[in-house]
Design brief:
It comes from Kitasatospora setae (strain ATCC 33774 / DSM 43861 / JCM 3304 / KCC A-0304 / NBRC 14216 / KM-6054) (Streptomyces setae). The chain has about 240 residues and is of the alpha+beta class. It has a single domain (about 55-244), classed as Sortase (Sortase, Chain: A). The chain contains two helices and eight strands. The chain has helices at about 1-60, 110-115; strands at about 85-90, 100-105, 120, 135-140, 160-165, 170-185, 205-210, 220-230. An eight-stranded mixed barrel has the order 1-2-3-4-7-8-6-5. Strand 5 and strand 6 (about 170-185) form a beta hairpin. It is elongated, with a radius of gyration of 25 Å. It starts with a helix and ends in a 12-residue tail after the last strand.
């Protein structure tokens, strides 16, 4: 009987040791996961913001804009052929906070979007550009990590202004509709006349898309806006009233 008792205590001791080791492993795993999440949601933001800031500065340095004559017409918008990754301009969304600015670049690959920018769709539909006579200027950006430029996209509501800044013009849009959730395979939301939007025919539109819910990429959300006017850029690059 004494041997049996000692054996039971030994088994309980070994079980306690095993449970202790398992607990330590779980704690270690939890710390590793926490570090990974911190890297994904903080450090990638830092790196992306730095990269986007440098790229944005380089783009502005290439812009030489003559002053528009008082009361005169807006300067003619250039029509260059953009390659993937090229800078196009800047997106300003007052609802994201004062002074918000996001560099716009061609393409929606991870290589482009991971640098903290809004990317222009080139497929399945090639986006129209803001200066085109009609079409849909469709953009995508990360909601979390890598700059998270569209983290607050769900703040936008009908009537909110959104401004696209290019070398020669400020394109002022007004939000017309939102789609809180759709399949990530729903390419119709970025069609020339976006499916599910309030628009029923050709026009000059802007579409912003990102992942949803927060911290996942299971679905997509979309915000649609319509161009309401184009303001010429003056020598001081005075922003339109919506950004003041």
């Amino acid at each position: 009987m004494g041997t049996a008792i000692r054996g039971g205590r030994g088994r309980r001791g070994r079980l306690a040791v095993a449970l202790g080791l398992a607990g330590e492993l779980l704690i270690t795993l939890g710390l590793v996961l926490a570090l990974f999440v911190g890297y994904s949601l903080w450090w990638t933001d830092v790196v992306a913001d730095r990269a986007a800031g440098r790229a944005g500065d380089r783009l502005r340095q290439t812009w030489t804009v003559p002053a528009a004559p008082p009361g005169g017409p807006a300067a003619a918008e250039p029509v260059p052929q953009y390659a993937a990754g090229d800078g196009v301009g800047f997106l300003h969304v007052p609802a994201f906070g004062r002074g918000d600015q996001t560099l716009i670049r061609m393409g929606t690959t991870a290589e482009v979007l991971n640098e903290g920018v809004a990317g222009v769709y080139e497929e399945p539909y090639r986006s129209a550009m803001p200066w085109d006579a009609e079409g849909n200027f469709a953009l995508a950006a990360h909601r979390d990590g890598h700059g998270a430029k569209f983290h607050d996209l769900d703040r936008l509501a009908p009537g909110d202004p959104v401004v696209v800044e290019t070398r020669d013009s400020w394109y002022v849009y007004k939000v017309a509709g939102t789609l809180p959730q759709t399949s990530k395979y729903d390419v119709g939301v970025v069609a020339p006349v976006p499916e599910g939007s309030p628009f029923t025919g050709p026009g000059r539109y802007l579409t912003l898309t990102t992942c949803t819910p927060v911290y996942t990429s299971r679905y997509r959300m979309a915000v649609w806006a319509e161009l309401v006017r184009v303001d010429p850029v003056d020598a001081k690059r005075t922003p339109p009233p919506e950004l003041r």
